């Protein structure tokens, strides 16, 4: 899984400035993460997109075993130099190089907004133990002082549309799926104190600034120097104080209702045709399928009444990922990603009632994989999800017996018809 081009180029070029210029996290925010995620001795914690290891180092005193995953070699080298006892691995949030259900907590500092959200939350859920927890933290400049407003103006002019925390677009994967429970949040005030050049390094460590051609980057950093040298609040200061707000979020994997005949809707996925299908917050299911969904190869290949809805399981996604293939909700074209059902025990004619008054579906046949899914499989081996080889990991087609609305988190009740 390739990372965002600007992030790859910028963080590789700006690793030194990142280590010099990025502040430590608020101690109160770190304490809250440790408390909510129950980080301590005997626990294994994944620091995902760990960068140079700033968050890793602040979590280490809690006594947990920490494994750091970072895709950029230059950042990882600094982490390894500063924390030689920490296991550091190359990997991304969308392809975490750890076994399923092998860590007690996952933490992400200043990075989740760079991820492909649905792929990342699916992978994070896979590596977490069922009773594990996920914590996210960002520190954003507090713009209440006039000179920081001017600093933000300089930084914003340098940005041409990169992912950023403040847009809150990163929340979509949580808001549109039921893979995790609702995000809990807390904010803390903190201050970075350093020389004017420390503040310059802070700006230089921003990925899209670090990725600029040298001349343009120099002009941006010179603007910062001029601001610090001329603003009444910073002019002549040996130490500059830059206030931040630390934003902490935490959540836990959703647990499906107990019993092999009860599950829930983890994700609703549609596309204008082709794969992957992407999550949406709700849908109406009519007799030909989900409103807003389409097929690149329509009837008679796809989209007949007997193929109105395609179903898949979170547990199957995790098993396929454990074999080294790419898999996440919607990747193989399913409309409903379900959690908690005994997938291997499904049979033609079984019915599923979704919600208390939602649609009633009837399983008609396995969905045959085809070359549209080939891209997700090592060496194109999409037979990994064929019913002939792996019926426990194959998708199902269903007909719509009764129409209705569906949302992530709706319960699914399996009804045996014979």
Characterise this structure:
The two termini are 44 Å apart. The strands form three sheets. Strands 3-2-1-4-5-7-6 form a seven-stranded mixed β-sheet. By secondary structure, it is of the alpha+beta class. The model has no long low-confidence stretch (mean pLDDT 94). The chain has two domains: 247 residues, Rossmann fold; 154 residues, Beta Barrel (M1 Pyruvate Kinase, Domain 3). Helix content is 26%, strand content 26%. Helix 12 links the parallel strand 12 and strand 13.
Shape: elongated
Low-confidence stretches: none
In CATH's first tier, which class of the largest domain applies?
Alpha Beta
Number of domains: 2
The N- to C-terminal Cα distance equals 44 Å
Helix content: 25-40%
Mean pLDDT over the residues: 94
Radius of gyration: 24 Å
Key terms for this structure?
2 domains, seven-stranded mixed sheet, seven-stranded mixed beta barrel, alpha+beta, 12 helices, M1 Pyruvate Kinase, Domain 3, 418 residues
Produce a short descriptive summary:
The chain has 418 residues and is an alpha+beta fold. It contains twelve helices and 18 strands.
Fold topology:
Elements: H1 5-13, H2 15-21, H3 27-37, E1 44-48, H4 54-59, E2 65-69, H5 73-82, E3 87-89, E4 103-109, H6 117-127, E5 128-141, H7 146-158, H8 172-175, E6 184-194, H9 196-204, H10 207-210, H11 214-230, E7 240-251, E8 262-270, E9 278-280, E10 283-286, E11 289-290, E12 309-313, H12 314-322, E13 336-339, E14 351-354, E15 360-366, E16 396-402, E17 404-406, E18 411-415
């Amino acid at each position: 899984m390739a990372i965002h081009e600007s992030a790859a180029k910028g963080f590789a070029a700006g690793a030194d400035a990142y280590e010099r210029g990025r502040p430590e996290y608020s101690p109160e925010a770190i304490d809250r993460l440790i408390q909510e995620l129950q980080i301590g001795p005997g626990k294994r914690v994944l620091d995902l997109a760990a960068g140079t290891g700033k968050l890793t180092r602040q979590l280490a005193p809690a006594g947990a075993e920490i494994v750091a995953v970072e895709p950029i070699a230059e950042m990882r080298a600094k982490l390894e130099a500063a924390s030689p006892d920490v296991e550091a691995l190359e990997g991304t949030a969308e392809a975490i190089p750890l076994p399923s259900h092998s860590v007690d907590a996952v933490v992400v500092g200043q990075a989740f907004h760079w991820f492909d959200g649905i792929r990342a939350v699916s992978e994070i859920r896979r590596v977490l133990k069922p009773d594990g927890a996920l914590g996210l933290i960002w520190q954003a400049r507090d713009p209440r002082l006039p000179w920081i407003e001017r600093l933000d103006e300089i930084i914003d002019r340098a940005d041409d549309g990169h992912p950023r925390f403040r847009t809150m677009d990163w929340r979509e994967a949580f808001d549109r799926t039921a893979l995790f429970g609702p995000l809990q949040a807390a904010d803390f005030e903190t201050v970075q104190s350093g020389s004017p050049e420390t503040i310059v390094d802070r700006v230089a460590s921003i990925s899209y600034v670090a990725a600029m051609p040298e001349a343009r980057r120099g002009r941006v950093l010179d603007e910062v120097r001029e601001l610090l040298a001329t603003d009444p609040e910073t002019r002549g200061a040996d130490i500059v104080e830059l206030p931040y707000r630390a934003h902490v979020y935490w959540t836990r994997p959703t647990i499906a209702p107990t019993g092999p005949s009860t599950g829930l809707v983890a994700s609703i996925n549609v596309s204008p045709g082709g794969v992957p299908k992407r999550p949406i917050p709700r849908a109406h299911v009519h007799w030909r399928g989900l409103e807003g969904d389409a097929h690149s190869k329509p009837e008679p290949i796809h989209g007949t009444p007997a193929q109105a809805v395609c179903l898949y399981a979170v547990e199957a996604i995790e098993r396929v990922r454990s074999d080294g293939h790419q898999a996440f909700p919607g990747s193989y074209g399913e409309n409903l990603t379900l959690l908690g059902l005994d997938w291997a025990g499904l049979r033609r004619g079984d019915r599923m009632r979704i919600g208390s008054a939602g649609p009633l579906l009837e399983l008609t046949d396995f969905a045959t994989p085809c070359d549209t899914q080939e891209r997700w499989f090592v060496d194109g081996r999409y037979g990994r999800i064929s019913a002939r080889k792996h019926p426990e990991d194959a998708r199902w087609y269903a007909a719509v017996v009764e129409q209705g609305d569906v949302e992530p988190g709706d319960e699914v009740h399996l009804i045996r018809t014979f």
